[in-house]
Design goal:
Blueprint: E1 2-10, H1 16-33, E2 36-42, E3 45-52, H2 54-66, E4 70-80, E5 92-96, H3 98-102, H4 113-116, H5 122-133, H6 136-147
Parallel strand pairs: 2-5
Antiparallel strand pairs: 1-3, 1-4, 2-3
Length: about 150
């Protein structure tokens, strides 16, 4: 199993409706392909982690690179993992501000030691820590319980 973490920039400001469409399409595709992960959108910037089988995340990343709603796709990290770290979500999502996200820039002091020992890239640790600290685990669990 592998993960990919990337950042990109929106080509134009995205409305809530447009963001919902992106997230819903991602969730549908990811469920179909056995991919899990998280996406953060902050003032025109996307940061996302995908995890799954190598061929599936590579295919998803190829689709992402071809999507004209964003540009400047930069792969921050890709590597092997022994287990999923975001396994309960086909695509968790949070829209935030740069100010809110900057509170978590020193993830090395706050990241879960078990995750830090996993060998994941620091960007993945930062996203996981951010989602945990902003209540996304609880919020996503509640949301998913209604969707089922």
């Amino acid at each position: 199993m592998q993960y990919i973490c990337y950042v990109s920039a929106a080509t134009a400001p995205l409305s809530g409706e447009e963001l919902n469409k992106i997230v819903n399409t991602s969730r549908t595709n990811n469920k179909r392909d056995g991919i899990t992960g998280i996406m953060l959108y902050s003032e025109g910037t996307f940061m996302q982690v995908l995890e799954g089988e190598k061929k599936d995340i590579n295919a998803a990343f190829e689709r992402i690179n071809k999507d004209n709603r964003h540009t400047g796709v930069v792969k921050l990290a890709q590597g092997e993992i022994s287990e999923r770290h975001f396994g309960q979500w086909p695509m968790a999502f949070k829209k935030t501000t740069a100010k809110e996200f900057s509170k978590f820039s020193d993830f090395s002091e706050t990241a879960d030691p078990e995750i830090a020992e996993s060998g994941l890239h620091p960007s993945v640790l930062l996203l996981k820590d951010f989602f945990e600290k902003t209540g996304m685990y609880l919020a996503m669990g509640l949301l998913l319980s209604f969707v089922k």
